[in-house]
Amino acid sequence: MWQEADDRRRWDDIVSAQPRARFLQSWEWGEFQKSLGRTVKRLSWNGDVVAQAIKMPLPLSKYYWYIPHGPLVIKDSPDWGDALKETLNDGALFSRVDPISKTFHRSVVGGIGSAPATQPRCTYVLDISRTEDELLSPMHQKTRYNIRLAEKCGVEINEGSIEEFLRLNKETKARGQFASHPDAYYQHMASSLPKNFIRIWQATYQGRVIASNIIITFGDTATYTHGASSNQHRDVMAPYLLHWHTIQSVKKQGMRCYDFWGVNPKDPRHGAYKESWQGITRFKEGFGGALVCYPRSFDVIYHFWLYIVYTIARNIRRKI
Fold first, then answer.
1. Coil, helix or strand for 286?
2. 241 vs 62, 141, 153, CA distance in Å?
3. From 9, 47, 162, 291, which residue has the greatest number of CB atoms within 10 Å?
Protein backbone atom coordinates (compact mmCIF):
# COMPACT_ATOMS: atom_id res chain seq x y z
CA MET A 1 0.00 0.00 0.00
CA TRP A 2 1.00 3.62 -0.44
CA GLN A 3 2.52 5.29 2.60
CA GLU A 4 3.79 8.81 3.13
CA ALA A 5 7.58 8.92 3.44
CA ASP A 6 9.21 10.80 6.30
CA ASP A 7 12.84 9.74 5.94
CA ARG A 8 14.65 12.39 3.92
CA ARG A 9 17.88 10.43 3.52
CA ARG A 10 16.17 7.22 2.38
CA TRP A 11 13.98 9.15 -0.07
CA ASP A 12 16.90 10.94 -1.70
CA ASP A 13 18.96 7.75 -1.71
CA ILE A 14 16.23 6.02 -3.74
CA VAL A 15 15.58 8.91 -6.13
CA SER A 16 19.22 9.90 -6.66
CA ALA A 17 20.26 6.30 -7.38
CA GLN A 18 18.19 6.23 -10.58
CA PRO A 19 20.05 6.84 -13.87
CA ARG A 20 19.74 10.50 -14.92
CA ALA A 21 18.37 11.31 -11.48
CA ARG A 22 15.26 13.54 -11.41
CA PHE A 23 15.68 16.61 -9.23
CA LEU A 24 11.94 17.29 -9.55
CA GLN A 25 11.34 14.18 -7.43
CA SER A 26 14.03 15.05 -4.88
CA TRP A 27 13.24 15.86 -1.26
CA GLU A 28 14.90 19.27 -1.73
CA TRP A 29 12.58 20.21 -4.56
CA GLY A 30 9.59 19.20 -2.46
CA GLU A 31 10.81 21.44 0.36
CA PHE A 32 11.17 24.31 -2.10
CA GLN A 33 7.56 23.77 -3.19
CA LYS A 34 6.47 23.78 0.45
CA SER A 35 8.25 27.10 0.95
CA LEU A 36 6.03 28.50 -1.83
CA GLY A 37 2.99 27.58 0.28
CA ARG A 38 2.15 24.31 -1.47
CA THR A 39 1.33 20.97 0.12
CA VAL A 40 3.61 18.10 -0.89
CA LYS A 41 3.00 14.37 -0.57
CA ARG A 42 5.90 11.93 -0.81
CA LEU A 43 4.44 8.50 -1.39
CA SER A 44 6.19 5.12 -1.40
CA TRP A 45 4.87 1.73 -2.53
CA ASN A 46 7.08 -0.55 -0.39
CA GLY A 47 10.11 1.34 -1.72
CA ASP A 48 9.47 -0.17 -5.18
CA VAL A 49 7.71 2.90 -6.58
CA VAL A 50 7.95 6.48 -5.30
CA ALA A 51 5.98 9.56 -6.28
CA GLN A 52 6.29 13.14 -5.08
CA ALA A 53 3.02 15.00 -5.70
CA ILE A 54 2.54 18.76 -5.37
CA LYS A 55 -0.85 20.31 -4.62
CA MET A 56 -1.56 23.01 -7.19
CA PRO A 57 -4.39 25.54 -6.79
CA LEU A 58 -7.26 26.04 -9.22
CA PRO A 59 -10.06 28.66 -9.24
CA LEU A 60 -13.06 28.29 -6.91
CA SER A 61 -10.96 26.62 -4.19
CA LYS A 62 -10.34 23.58 -6.38
CA TYR A 63 -6.95 21.95 -6.81
CA TYR A 64 -5.05 19.17 -8.55
CA TRP A 65 -2.03 17.01 -7.70
CA TYR A 66 1.00 17.38 -9.93
CA ILE A 67 3.65 14.64 -10.30
CA PRO A 68 6.68 16.01 -12.21
CA HIS A 69 8.93 13.39 -13.86
CA GLY A 70 7.39 10.57 -11.87
CA PRO A 71 6.35 8.20 -10.49
CA LEU A 72 9.75 6.51 -10.36
CA VAL A 73 9.48 2.76 -10.75
CA ILE A 74 12.43 1.04 -9.12
CA LYS A 75 10.79 -2.40 -9.19
CA ASP A 76 7.45 -2.91 -10.91
CA SER A 77 4.70 -4.24 -8.69
CA PRO A 78 1.03 -5.01 -9.38
CA ASP A 79 -1.78 -2.65 -8.40
CA TRP A 80 0.33 0.39 -7.52
CA GLY A 81 -1.07 2.54 -10.35
CA ASP A 82 -4.74 2.28 -9.46
CA ALA A 83 -3.87 2.50 -5.77
CA LEU A 84 -2.01 5.78 -6.37
CA LYS A 85 -4.99 7.08 -8.32
CA GLU A 86 -7.23 6.41 -5.33
CA THR A 87 -4.72 7.79 -2.81
CA LEU A 88 -4.69 11.17 -4.56
CA ASN A 89 -8.48 11.18 -5.05
CA ASP A 90 -9.00 13.23 -1.88
CA GLY A 91 -11.16 16.01 -3.31
CA ALA A 92 -8.76 16.93 -6.13
CA LEU A 93 -10.22 17.60 -9.57
CA PHE A 94 -7.48 15.49 -11.19
CA SER A 95 -3.84 14.44 -10.94
CA ARG A 96 -1.44 15.66 -13.63
CA VAL A 97 1.57 13.57 -14.57
CA ASP A 98 4.63 14.61 -16.59
CA PRO A 99 5.96 11.06 -17.04
CA ILE A 100 9.37 9.75 -17.97
CA SER A 101 7.86 6.38 -18.94
CA LYS A 102 4.44 4.99 -19.85
CA THR A 103 4.35 2.70 -16.84
CA PHE A 104 1.88 4.75 -14.78
CA HIS A 105 -0.34 5.30 -17.80
CA ARG A 106 -0.56 1.55 -18.34
CA SER A 107 -1.15 0.92 -14.63
CA VAL A 108 -4.27 3.07 -14.30
CA VAL A 109 -7.69 1.93 -15.47
CA GLY A 110 -9.99 4.65 -16.84
CA GLY A 111 -10.16 8.40 -16.30
CA ILE A 112 -7.16 9.40 -18.42
CA GLY A 113 -7.00 12.57 -20.49
CA SER A 114 -4.12 14.11 -22.44
CA ALA A 115 -2.72 17.31 -20.97
CA PRO A 116 -0.23 20.06 -21.81
CA ALA A 117 3.23 19.32 -20.42
CA THR A 118 4.46 21.49 -17.57
CA GLN A 119 8.08 20.39 -18.08
CA PRO A 120 9.82 20.27 -21.49
CA ARG A 121 9.09 17.00 -23.27
CA CYS A 122 12.43 16.78 -25.08
CA THR A 123 15.99 17.45 -24.00
CA TYR A 124 19.58 16.83 -24.98
CA VAL A 125 21.50 14.80 -22.39
CA LEU A 126 25.28 14.81 -22.60
CA ASP A 127 27.30 11.91 -21.16
CA ILE A 128 30.07 13.75 -19.31
CA SER A 129 31.71 10.63 -17.88
CA ARG A 130 34.01 10.73 -20.93
CA THR A 131 37.29 12.63 -21.10
CA GLU A 132 37.27 16.29 -22.11
CA ASP A 133 38.80 15.41 -25.48
CA GLU A 134 36.06 12.83 -26.01
CA LEU A 135 33.47 15.49 -25.18
CA LEU A 136 34.95 18.07 -27.54
CA SER A 137 35.35 15.73 -30.50
CA PRO A 138 31.63 15.07 -31.27
CA MET A 139 30.66 18.73 -30.81
CA HIS A 140 29.61 20.69 -33.85
CA GLN A 141 32.64 22.42 -35.36
CA LYS A 142 31.02 25.82 -34.80
CA THR A 143 30.44 25.04 -31.12
CA ARG A 144 34.12 24.20 -30.58
CA TYR A 145 35.11 27.33 -32.53
CA ASN A 146 32.84 29.55 -30.43
CA ILE A 147 34.21 28.12 -27.17
CA ARG A 148 37.75 28.96 -28.31
CA LEU A 149 36.62 32.38 -29.55
CA ALA A 150 35.11 33.26 -26.17
CA GLU A 151 38.33 32.21 -24.45
CA LYS A 152 40.41 34.24 -26.90
CA CYS A 153 38.21 37.31 -26.37
CA GLY A 154 38.86 37.15 -22.63
CA VAL A 155 35.43 36.02 -21.42
CA GLU A 156 35.71 34.93 -17.78
CA ILE A 157 33.49 32.41 -15.99
CA ASN A 158 32.85 32.65 -12.26
CA GLU A 159 30.31 32.21 -9.47
CA GLY A 160 27.15 34.14 -10.28
CA SER A 161 24.56 36.17 -8.41
CA ILE A 162 20.79 36.03 -8.64
CA GLU A 163 20.70 39.82 -9.10
CA GLU A 164 22.74 39.61 -12.32
CA PHE A 165 20.63 36.69 -13.54
CA LEU A 166 17.42 38.68 -13.03
CA ARG A 167 18.85 41.70 -14.86
CA LEU A 168 19.80 39.57 -17.85
CA ASN A 169 16.56 37.62 -17.71
CA LYS A 170 14.61 40.81 -18.41
CA GLU A 171 16.65 41.31 -21.60
CA THR A 172 16.22 37.68 -22.61
CA LYS A 173 12.43 37.78 -22.19
CA ALA A 174 12.16 40.96 -24.24
CA ARG A 175 14.41 39.60 -26.98
CA GLY A 176 13.06 36.09 -27.35
CA GLN A 177 9.53 36.45 -26.03
CA PHE A 178 10.12 33.46 -23.76
CA ALA A 179 7.81 32.67 -20.87
CA SER A 180 9.42 33.20 -17.50
CA HIS A 181 8.72 32.93 -13.79
CA PRO A 182 8.33 36.08 -11.69
CA ASP A 183 11.56 37.46 -10.22
CA ALA A 184 10.46 36.38 -6.75
CA TYR A 185 10.40 32.73 -7.86
CA TYR A 186 14.07 32.79 -8.93
CA GLN A 187 15.05 34.74 -5.83
CA HIS A 188 13.35 32.16 -3.67
CA MET A 189 15.07 29.32 -5.53
CA ALA A 190 18.47 30.90 -4.90
CA SER A 191 17.83 31.61 -1.22
CA SER A 192 15.93 28.48 -0.13
CA LEU A 193 17.54 25.58 -2.02
CA PRO A 194 20.77 24.09 -0.57
CA LYS A 195 24.01 25.45 -1.99
CA ASN A 196 25.11 21.98 -3.09
CA PHE A 197 21.83 21.64 -5.01
CA ILE A 198 21.68 24.91 -6.92
CA ARG A 199 24.46 27.05 -8.36
CA ILE A 200 24.60 30.12 -10.57
CA TRP A 201 27.43 30.54 -13.08
CA GLN A 202 28.01 33.75 -15.00
CA ALA A 203 30.17 34.96 -17.88
CA THR A 204 31.89 38.34 -17.64
CA TYR A 205 33.34 40.40 -20.49
CA GLN A 206 35.15 43.70 -20.04
CA GLY A 207 33.95 43.87 -16.44
CA ARG A 208 30.27 43.34 -17.25
CA VAL A 209 28.21 40.17 -16.77
CA ILE A 210 26.73 39.18 -20.14
CA ALA A 211 25.42 35.63 -19.52
CA SER A 212 24.13 33.70 -16.52
CA ASN A 213 22.88 30.13 -15.97
CA ILE A 214 21.11 28.42 -13.08
CA ILE A 215 22.29 24.81 -12.66
CA ILE A 216 20.76 22.17 -10.39
CA THR A 217 22.83 19.12 -9.43
CA PHE A 218 21.23 15.99 -8.01
CA GLY A 219 22.33 12.37 -8.10
CA ASP A 220 24.39 11.81 -11.22
CA THR A 221 22.92 14.73 -13.20
CA ALA A 222 23.51 18.46 -13.56
CA THR A 223 20.53 20.22 -15.16
CA TYR A 224 20.63 23.57 -16.95
CA THR A 225 17.27 24.87 -15.71
CA HIS A 226 17.38 28.58 -16.59
CA GLY A 227 19.63 30.79 -18.69
CA ALA A 228 19.84 34.46 -19.59
CA SER A 229 22.13 36.59 -21.72
CA SER A 230 22.71 40.21 -22.65
CA ASN A 231 21.82 41.94 -25.89
CA GLN A 232 25.34 43.37 -25.87
CA HIS A 233 28.60 41.66 -26.90
CA ARG A 234 26.83 38.70 -28.47
CA ASP A 235 29.76 38.40 -30.88
CA VAL A 236 32.07 37.07 -28.13
CA MET A 237 29.95 33.88 -27.77
CA ALA A 238 29.92 33.87 -23.98
CA PRO A 239 27.08 31.30 -23.56
CA TYR A 240 29.21 28.63 -25.30
CA LEU A 241 32.10 29.04 -22.88
CA LEU A 242 29.68 29.33 -19.96
CA HIS A 243 28.24 25.88 -20.68
CA TRP A 244 31.62 24.32 -21.39
CA HIS A 245 33.06 25.64 -18.13
CA THR A 246 29.99 24.39 -16.24
CA ILE A 247 30.32 20.95 -17.84
CA GLN A 248 33.98 20.81 -16.80
CA SER A 249 33.11 21.85 -13.24
CA VAL A 250 30.23 19.44 -12.62
CA LYS A 251 32.25 16.65 -14.21
CA LYS A 252 34.90 17.21 -11.54
CA GLN A 253 32.15 16.97 -8.91
CA GLY A 254 31.35 13.46 -10.12
CA MET A 255 28.31 14.18 -12.29
CA ARG A 256 27.81 11.76 -15.19
CA CYS A 257 25.10 13.60 -17.16
CA TYR A 258 24.53 17.18 -18.25
CA ASP A 259 20.88 17.82 -19.07
CA PHE A 260 20.30 20.82 -21.37
CA TRP A 261 16.54 20.81 -20.57
CA GLY A 262 14.05 22.04 -23.19
CA VAL A 263 14.64 21.47 -26.93
CA ASN A 264 12.60 20.65 -30.00
CA PRO A 265 12.07 17.07 -31.20
CA LYS A 266 13.49 16.21 -34.62
CA ASP A 267 10.10 15.98 -36.32
CA PRO A 268 8.35 19.37 -36.75
CA ARG A 269 5.02 17.49 -36.68
CA HIS A 270 5.69 16.31 -33.12
CA GLY A 271 3.28 17.81 -30.59
CA ALA A 272 6.12 19.33 -28.55
CA TYR A 273 7.71 21.19 -31.49
CA LYS A 274 7.87 25.00 -31.11
CA GLU A 275 9.00 27.39 -33.83
CA SER A 276 10.38 29.74 -31.17
CA TRP A 277 12.73 26.98 -29.91
CA GLN A 278 14.58 26.45 -33.19
CA GLY A 279 17.53 28.66 -32.26
CA ILE A 280 18.00 27.36 -28.72
CA THR A 281 17.69 23.78 -30.01
CA ARG A 282 20.51 24.32 -32.55
CA PHE A 283 22.64 25.86 -29.81
CA LYS A 284 22.19 22.92 -27.41
CA GLU A 285 22.45 20.29 -30.17
CA GLY A 286 25.90 21.63 -30.99
CA PHE A 287 27.32 20.19 -27.75
CA GLY A 288 26.69 16.65 -28.96
CA GLY A 289 24.19 15.27 -26.45
CA ALA A 290 21.65 12.52 -27.10
CA LEU A 291 18.07 13.60 -27.82
CA VAL A 292 15.61 12.25 -25.23
CA CYS A 293 11.84 12.73 -25.55
CA TYR A 294 9.35 11.74 -22.85
CA PRO A 295 5.79 10.40 -23.29
CA ARG A 296 2.86 12.79 -23.44
CA SER A 297 1.63 14.28 -20.20
CA PHE A 298 -1.77 13.17 -18.96
CA ASP A 299 -4.41 13.86 -16.33
CA VAL A 300 -5.97 11.21 -14.12
CA ILE A 301 -9.52 12.55 -13.86
CA TYR A 302 -11.61 12.27 -10.69
CA HIS A 303 -14.59 14.52 -11.48
CA PHE A 304 -15.35 14.18 -15.17
CA TRP A 305 -17.88 16.98 -15.81
CA LEU A 306 -16.03 19.54 -13.71
CA TYR A 307 -12.89 18.54 -15.57
CA ILE A 308 -14.60 19.21 -18.92
CA VAL A 309 -15.55 22.71 -17.71
CA TYR A 310 -11.98 23.31 -16.52
CA THR A 311 -10.54 22.16 -19.88
CA ILE A 312 -12.84 24.44 -21.86
CA ALA A 313 -11.97 27.43 -19.64
CA ARG A 314 -8.24 26.63 -19.91
CA ASN A 315 -8.40 26.50 -23.71
CA ILE A 316 -10.29 29.79 -23.87
CA ARG A 317 -7.68 31.51 -21.67
CA ARG A 318 -4.88 30.32 -23.95
CA LYS A 319 -6.54 31.85 -27.01
CA ILE A 320 -7.06 35.25 -25.41
1. coil
2. 46, 14, 11
3. 162
